[in-house]
Amino acid sequence: MAPYGPEPELCGMKLNPCLALVAAFALALAARPAAVAQPTAALVPTVLLDERFADNSNSWIVGSDDTGDSKIDTLAGTYTLRRPPEGGSFITQTLGVNYDADFSIDVELRGTGGLVWGYTKGSYNTLELTAAGQWLAKRVLNSTATTLKQGALTAPADWHRLRVARVVNELQISVDDKLVHQQAWEAPAGKKVGFVARGPGGELVLRRLRVQHRAAPIQLAPNLPAGLKRERLGPPVSDPALADVGPVVSADGKRIFFHRVISKVSTVNANVSDKDVYLTERRPDGSWGPAQSLGRPINNEASNAPAWTSPDGRELLLISRYNADGSYLSRSGLSRSRQQPDGSWSIPEVAVERKSDFPGQRVSYTFDAGSTLRVYSKQLDSRESPNSDLYVEFRQPDGSYGPARALGPVLNTPLKDISPFLAPDGVTLYFASNGHPGYGHLDIFVSRRLDDSWTSWSPPLNLGPAVNTNGDESFFTLAAAGDYAYFSATGPAGNLDLYRIALPPALAPKATRLVRGRVLNARTGEPIGGADIAYEQLPGGQAAGTVAAALGTGRYKIVLPAGRQFGFRASAAVYLSVNENVDLTSLTRYGEVEQDLLLLPLMAPVAALAAAPVQLAGGTAPAAVPGQVKSVAVPAPKVPVEEKITLNNLFFVQSQPKLLPASFPELNRLAQTLREHPGLRLRLEGHTDNVGDDKNPRPNQFLSEQRAEAVRNYLLGQGIAAERLSTAGYGGSRPAVPNTTEASRRRNRRVECVVLAR
User: What is the mean pLDDT of residues 453-476?
Assistant: First the structure.
């Protein structure tokens, strides 16, 4: 509970934003003429919150520090705040009130102190009880206090009822159900609402807090099932005594990373909590195993939290920066760590540099396949700012992201809009907000992108009472299959826990396809770990994302959305890649496909030279001495004379040799490979299926020759020398697979690339 400063400012109890009690007041009332003040009973409100402190499901701050202490007695139904004899006031909870609409805040309390509203650092309003048996309404603006009204308490000196309300264009103050003050409405400087305890060793006891307002209709997602219910993961995943926040689910649905709040104060940075990254893995029966701390180097002495994981859950982006030894460096930026073959994690390295042209703190990220970055931000002093907005940043050619672009007023409100998650379809966005009409605190909403401007979105829809309650809900995420969604929500003990819900079609994104397989050496069949797998939209060749093959096994996973055609390939130094493609334009439901990716070596293997004697023309050279580099002339080992790969991402006009634009990205990469390896010569071989061969094979033979020549002409146009390229056509005489189905015939209509020399 670090102090903001002496009176007339308040001393503020530190509060994790994810644990703050917040409420949405999103109604902008139509302008109305000034009216004669009405008694507060004239307000016809919707009850937003009616807290009787029977539990701590609303995440009230409890505990002690140097500015006081607070506790909830659930049996008595009270919330008690105390301040130490040496002085200092404190704010406990906050509400995000929209003061542009009619509202009322009622408290029942006893002691010294009372209600604080419209708070920002140095400016606020209070309605409180004094030690002298009076009530006092005060306004503080830029640390200068003005008494609005004060008077004697006339009710018995025990429990008292205080109310602050806006009715039309008036501020109305009531004490013990009596209207004691009215004045023209004046908007407060800040947004927060809380409590203050006064007097040396003073104590304030609350037994009820009631918030009312003229609520706008909640815009619910349509067709929500009547029996939809959320499920708390609970032990062995969530620890009810601690806050478990921010689930990050791998696309294959087998891993959930999240951060656990170990302490409210970090030993490195007193302004943030101490958080560690945990992992739970799905068991064969579908249940989730015990949550395990990732340990060092992921978890160090600072605040550590996951931002994103690769589709296979073997790569992590972390919110913070690390030194080379794994120790804390900075809160700004993102770091990347990969899981090693032995199960350990590498020391995180800088993944995405923070752009200096964007003010504010970035605290939550979502990626679409690694090419576009979404982020929500807060102002530099997050304790004082009620505002967090959603932004998009695009990856630049140098690997950085930016500049930041706000997602626009349909999504962003004057209050908190946080924890975005962009579904694998690249269109459906889930986020949390207290600025859109909801059920009281942070609610989760869904919206869909309408075009490529990233500022045009469908109206946000509330996910409904099965997901959203009067507690906090945020960090909504889901795997590629879309069967379950996971999120953070206030649990029965008052801490944030992990929950899941079976995702109904009304809330689901578009279908996706999970492609998995191995990256293999085409000559030996051995896995190639660490190879990059890139995928792109066809026909334009726009980059859609990259992942890395797992070290040791060469395994990879990528997620592709419906509605497009994609090409994908693996790449590694001194290898020629075999490209694949998948057409998802008609995909309507989730599916998985296995596809190995082959890489053809472009250089002779020499890895065994240091381990064994080498037979030279003049005798045998000794084995290499450790630590000593010895240069010897070694003849290249014999390799197969003719190795071939299929150019899978070539597309022609039906029954013609004319290349379609979707072929250009692959041919451009092949041309670049030829430029990088000037000794490489190729023979381009055309093939067709056998349709029509029984009557007259010549048309197929001629078509295969023409298509091979069309590929050669394209490469010549890219500056490749003619003597490095030859062609041949075989019609339907050399099928790769039997011509028994249309799918098989498609495989046989191909152009192969035969490597003649390296």
Answer: 91
Q: Can you list the positions of beta strands (E) in 584-652? A: 591-594, 597-601, 614-616, 619-621, 643-646
Question: What kind and span of H or E run contains 676?
Answer: helix 664-676
Which phi and psi (to 5°) does residue 127 adopt? -135, 110
**The pLDDT of residue 551:** 85
Mean pLDDT value of segment 433-451? 87
Reduced to 3 states (helix: H, G, I; strand: E, B; else coil), residue 543 is: strand
SS3 535: strand
**716 CB-near residues (< 8 Å, 6+ apart):** 722, 725
Q: 279 with 291: CB under 8 angstroms?
A: yes
Structure tokens at 152: 């004697």
The sheet that has 144-152: what strands, in order across it?
A: 144-152, 134-141, 123-129, 113-120, 192-197
Report pLDDT for 462. Answer: 94
340 in Cβ contact with 319 (< 8 Å): no
**Residue 115 confidence (pLDDT):** 92
Where are any strands of DSSP class E within 531-652?
532-538, 542-548, 555-561, 565-571, 575-577, 580-583, 591-594, 597-601, 614-616, 619-621, 643-646
Identify whether the C-beta of residue 334 lies closer than 8 Å to the C-beta of residue 365: yes
Does residue 654 contact residue 667 with C-beta atoms inside 8 Å?
no
What is the DSSP code string of 406-455?
A: E--TTT--SSBEEEEEE-TTSSEEEEEESSSS-SSS-EEEEEEB-STTSS
pLDDT digits (tens, 9 = 90+) for 55-95: 876 667 777 776 678 889 989 999 998 876 655 565 655 56
Give this prediction's pTM.
0.69
- With a pLDDT cut of 90, the percent of the chain lying above it is 30
Mean pLDDT, the chain, whole residue set: 79
Q: Which of 553, 554, 535, 560 is nearest to 545 (CA)?
A: 535
State which H helix or E strand residue 741 sits in: none
Tell me the C-alpha distance between 447 and 698, whole Å: 56
DSSP string over 65-127? ETTEEEEEETTTTEEEEE--TT----B-------TTS-EEEEEEEEESEEEEEEEETTEEEEE
Q: Taking 60 as the threshold, does the pLDDT of residue 138 lie above it? A: yes
Helix (H, G, I), strand (E, B) or coil at 255: strand
